[in-house]
Design a protein that fits this description.
Radius of gyration: 18 Å
Shape: globular
CATH topology: Rossmann fold
Structural class: alpha/beta
CATH architecture: 3-Layer(aba) Sandwich
Bound molecules: flavin mononucleotide
Helix content: 40-55%
Number of helices: 8
Distance between the termini: 44 Å
Mean pLDDT: 93
Low-confidence stretches: none
């Protein structure tokens, strides 16, 4: 597929990992992220992980909807992952879903981590929890994720400061995802790329 065709068929997926579903704060931020990515030309949708049967999430049964979500994830260039902070880390719901994936399932994808905590104390859940989790699956994670507390919302709607942080993270994700496509297509032949460096003695 040509670079132009690839750039015009970019896809994003949002993983919503709060048992609270659509009314949760992390889901609200995820919805804002997918809407912004839509404006930037990405097709995509949110997957509500809480909607899958527990047996399928634990790998004890197959579920068509879960299989479809994994296929949609495979087709996306940008993955936005939104989780509540539970016990200073990501939700168990996110972990059991990601445990169903192959170990390099996020290779070549750009991930944007979003976490919603009850207060500021567990801000590092992004860098100590989510970042290594996503990296272990091969994702390139944007430099700055988005950490939210209830103070950042008014009547359940994310405020301007949160949306600004989200925008910065998404801008980086889009830059990385589109650069990966152009780099792949315009890169020199593999033989040149892997030629050993001539070191001076
Ligand atoms: C089981 C459980 C554990 C929690 N642990 C933490 C925690 O360690 N640190 C924190 O800041 N908030 C903690 N919280 C609060 C949630 O992170 C907070 O309510 C968050 O906004 C929920 O996000 P959501 O609305 O996207 O589900 C916990 C909540 C629950 C239910």
């Amino acid at each position: 597929m040509s670079v132009i065709a690839q750039l015009s068929s970019l896809r994003a997926i949002g993983l919503s990992a709060s048992p609270g579903g659509a009314s949760s704060r992390s889901h609200q931020l995820l919805a804002a992220a997918l809407a912004r990515l839509g404006e930037l030309g990405f097709a995509g949708a949110i997957v509500d992980l809480a909607a899958f049967p527990a047996d399928a999430l634990l790998g004890r049964a197959r579920d068509r909807a879960l299989d479809r979500a994994i296929a949609d994830l495979a087709a996306a260039q940008v993955v936005v992952v939104a989780t509540p902070v539970y016990r200073a880390s990501y939700s168990g719901l996110l972990k059991v879903f990601l445990d169903q994936l192959d170990e390099d399932a996020l290779a070549g994808k750009v991930a944007v981590p979003i976490a919603s905590g009850g207060g500021p104390a567990h801000l590092l859940a992004i860098d100590h929890g989510l970042r290594p989790l996503l990296t272990s699956l091969g994702a390139t994670v944007v430099a700055a994720g988005v950490y939210a507390t209830p103070a950042g919302f008014t009547d359940g709607v994310p405020g301007g400061a949160l949306l600004d942080r989200l925008d910065r993270a998404l801008t980086e994700a889009v830059t990385l995802a589109t650069a990966a496509i152009t780099r792949r297509d315009f890169a020199p032949a593999a033989a040149h790329r892997h030629a050993p460096l001539a070191l001076e003695r």
